[in-house]
Amino acid sequence: MALLEIENLVVEFETASGMFRAVDGVSLSVERKEVLAVVGESGSGKSVSMLAVMGLLPWTAKVTADRMMFDGVDLATISPKERRKLVGKDMAMIFQEPMASLNPCFTVGFQIEEVLRVHMGMDRARRRARAIELLTLVGIPEPEQRLSSFPHQMSGGQCQRVMIAIALACNPKLLIADEPTTALDVTIQKQILDLLVRLQAEYGMGLIMITHNMGVVAETADRVIVQYKGRKMEEADVLSLFESPRSNYTRALLAALPDNATGDRLPTIDGFLVEAEAAAVNTPMMEPPL
């Protein structure tokens, strides 16, 4: 049995002009110890899909699925209280912007220890020892001193490492990394990606990597899902995706990579071709409201 199984996930938001479908019939599964990449351009529904799985969308969002199972638990039927016991403990998520994800009013140590207090019931001494252990694990120098630091006193790379420490605090079974290197410079991006892959292997977690960077996909993933406008266009193992993509959209994405440019200009994606292909995948596409 897969760690996470999602079938026909649909997410809709109410707007002034009616319901807007942000995710349209996406299905996916993740095995234990597997790295799944979800790739696509901005607005393709990658983050919304995962926020729906985590139960972190606003209450006004309408989320439905034929099947939404995590480690034998039906996420579609459990109560909000039961879901809160899972999120942050067995299912954890690293968000795009570390400086915005950490609370500026509390120290780094408090924010790490809060997870351990809520989900693990640790006393103060054990929480502090575990927090130091986690900061050491993610490569933060002088972890004892950093516990009393506020997020604004740390760099973007250090804040992202703190976010990883918080996510790993309770040894989760599934880790979702939502473009975890977006706000970081290239050198730090490499360090964070290497850290995530190493920790995933050590902890034996399932890892979902949300990204629009095909280089990240090639280096980290076992399988890949390509999304466009809320729909899954293709799913394949990494080697097959790069060597023989089936979807016109995937081929266009790969052709648009700078390394694949053959002239002075990068190739562009034929929107009409992709729209026609996407329409064939599922029901007619819904345009976002103006």
TrEMBL record:
<keyword id="KW-0067">ATP-binding</keyword>
<keyword id="KW-0472">Membrane</keyword>
<dbReference type="InterPro" id="IPR003439">
    <property type="entry name" value="ABC_transporter-like_ATP-bd"/>
</dbReference>
<dbReference type="Pfam" id="PF00005">
    <property type="entry name" value="ABC_tran"/>
</dbReference>
<dbReference type="GO" id="GO:0005524">
    <property type="term" value="F:ATP binding"/>
</dbReference>
<dbReference type="InterPro" id="IPR003593">
    <property type="entry name" value="AAA+_ATPase"/>
</dbReference>
<feature type="domain" description="ABC transporter">
    <location>
        <begin position="4"/>
        <end position="254"/>
    </location>
</feature>
<comment type="similarity">
    <text>Belongs to the ABC transporter superfamily.</text>
</comment>
<dbReference type="InterPro" id="IPR027417">
    <property type="entry name" value="P-loop_NTPase"/>
</dbReference>
<keyword id="KW-0813">Transport</keyword>
<keyword id="KW-0547">Nucleotide-binding</keyword>
<dbReference type="InterPro" id="IPR050388">
    <property type="entry name" value="ABC_Ni/Peptide_Import"/>
</dbReference>
<protein>
    <submittedName>
        <fullName>ABC transporter ATP-binding protein</fullName>
    </submittedName>
</protein>
<dbReference type="InterPro" id="IPR017871">
    <property type="entry name" value="ABC_transporter-like_CS"/>
</dbReference>
<keyword id="KW-1003">Cell membrane</keyword>
